[in-house]
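Hi team, as promised in this morning's meeting, here are the two structures we talked about. I've kept the exact order from the run log so nobody has to guess. The first one is mostly here for context; it's the second one we should focus on when we meet again. Sequence first, then the predicted structure tokens.
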Amino acid sequence: MPCDRSSPTSIIGRIVFAILSLLSLIFLATASAPAQEIARPVAQAQGERRALDPLTADEQAAAERVARNDPKVKELLGETGVRLVSAVPVLIKAESPEKTNLAQREIEVVLFRPQGEVGARVIVNLPQHGVVAVTRLASDQVPFTNDDLADAFQIALRDPEVLKALGPEAQTFRIRTVPPGPATPKNVVEGLPVRSSDPNDPCSKHRCLWLMFRRGNDYLSQPSVTVDLTDKRVYVEKPVTDRKADH
């Protein structure tokens, strides 16, 4: 017997089916909406880079490349023997806090040429791959780096007194890098900047490092070495007992 679509039973069944279908759609819509609202900010947060977010390796390389290729920087430093000292995000303040762009990626790149001891502070607009400003830096305005410590150590190793004090292990010392590497060598040389207040002391004007030698956890009392990176000279401080004997 064929089904009568106009019968009360058939009509009620279709109504119930329609209501259940509508409720299912409403449930799916309300369940997916919060997920979409949550996913959207997360995606935006992952894609956006704020002004002071740490640099990625690609960003640092791009900022350094832009700084080195700037005509003013080339005129100031040349193109050979120029070292990267640092590259850090900076926030350039506007006239009023409301106008400060917190999403503007500007990077302060500091470059240094040891020959002639001249440096440059370069502000790079990363999104536009352009240079905003270039400032000349004197040698005493440029921080020391691992490269300076390596240079100072190599100069010190040419000094007979240093070699005598360190003994057969002199060539086994390695510079302490910043940040430190995965493995710390047994024999380490560290450096501290020296700036003398005595106008007759070369280190009142020159770039000087005081070298400290460490075996394991113990620092060596000798040799006490100061290296003048500007004049490539080594000063070895004599022990107190030796100074008394001289008198």
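And here is the second protein, the one for discussion:
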Amino acid sequence: MRQRAPKRPAAERKRLILESAQSVFAESGYANSGTEQVARAAGVSASALYRYFPSKRDLYLATLRNAGPRLQALWAERAQRSSDPLEAIRLLGQEYYDHLQGRSSYARLWFQALGDADDPDVRDAISANFTGMVDVIAGLIATAQARGLARKDIDPRIAAWHFMAIGFTFDLVHHLALDGELDRARVEAWGHLYIDSLREAPHAPSNDESIPAQGRALPVRQPGRADRPGRGGDPLPQVPASTPDPVGEAHGGGADG
């Protein structure tokens, strides 16, 4: 007589249901998915599924609320492996791109969920997911600032949303089957460009050589005195007055011809 497979612990069974639900909802969306599909994918009966989640909507919301923290925990763990917080951010972006190329159900799940964002509970779950990821990246940027590795005139949270916008572009390009637009070499170059925009320059300008930029993700520099003619703050040379032309307009002035 065939022996029954040992019964899984409740926590493991719930985890399998949520992981299977993520794949099913990512593939078909909420409206076109059924709890029976999820139960089959998880290897449980429909009645067992309903013991954990009373309705399809409850299962969907639990799936959304579970997916975000899992990625955030993974990011936090990966970030601890690098001594440079900015390099950790670059590697996280690169790994996310590589993950997408493996047909990640995670990214597709959130794209599907955006179509259901009129539901306040779905919208809250999506918002919590993205703000949670912003928290991780902003924290790494703030740490880099504290260590003198990142510019002080950058708002960590705005810069973190910039990082998220790059990731969202990866998602969009991938889901539209436009991967040729962003191959790995271009993604690596983009990552270095983003990180370089955050790094503290080896010789930082003094306060009077840059404009205040609080709240700015990518600061705009004005040339310092040393960059101007007459180095060291010397007066600029006088420009001789132009001689009026026959129609009474100075050379170089007036409207374009």
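Starting points for discussion:
Residues 120-146 form the longest helix (27 residues).
The domain at 63-201 is CATH 1.10.357.10 (Tetracycline Repressor; domain 2).
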